[in-house]
Design brief:
The protein has 167 residues and is of the alpha/beta class. The mean pLDDT is 95. The protein has 7 helices and 5 strands. Helix 6 crosses helix 7. Strand 4, helix 4 and strand 5 form a beta-alpha-beta unit.
């Protein structure tokens, strides 16, 4: 599988997105990257989430809302194979955010069966865990962990390497 998009979200509170990174891969090469901060509802954050990714209210006070960036997300995901490192989290965040913004998830025309690099890593004895930073360390993939574009790029690279190794 050499044509897909890798996606990663960082959240402010529960499913409320504060950053998105999307990497488009064609013929096994990254051809496009997209990143945006996103202003969550009321620009509110859970302190724990800030501890994880370092994004704060001041970073997103002038950022676009999800509805403003959704056309970019839709353009990049529509009809594509989607890869994420933690599919259960990223797919749920996208679905819940779309629902909260009165958007229909089915209009993306993507499978509910996203490919999960965390599950792929956990299934292999090559990796000490399924954590993205540890998997990237094994593969010598550059990572600025919990920065949405870096995580999406690392996920794409990891997916490509795991697929090459399994063929």
């Amino acid at each position: 599988m050499s044509n897909f998009v890798a996606i990663d979200f960082e959240t402010a509170i529960r499913h409320h997105i504060c950053a998105v990174g999307i990497v488009t891969v064609e013929n096994g090469e990254i051809i496009e990257e997209y990143y945006s901060l996103v202003k969550p509802p009321k620009n509110q954050y859970n302190w724990h989430n800030i501890q994880v990714h370092g994004i704060t209210e001041s970073d997103t006070k002038n950022a676009p809302t999800f509805n403003k960036i959704y056309p970019e997300i839709k353009k990049r995901l529509s009809g594509k194979i989607v890869v994420a490192h933690n599919v259960a989290f990223d797919r749920s965040v996208l679905q819940k955010t779309m629902f909260a913004n009165n958007l229909d998830y089915s209009e993306l025309n993507i499978s509910d069966n996203w490919h999960c690099t965390m599950q792929m890593c956990r299934a292999s004895s090559k990796y000490p865990s399924g954590r993205l930073n540890e998997c990237c360390s094994v593969e010598d993939i550059e990572l600025n962990h919990h920065e949405a574009l870096s995580d999406a790029r690392a996920c794409a690279e990891l997916f490509l390497r795991i697929n090459i190794a399994s063929t």
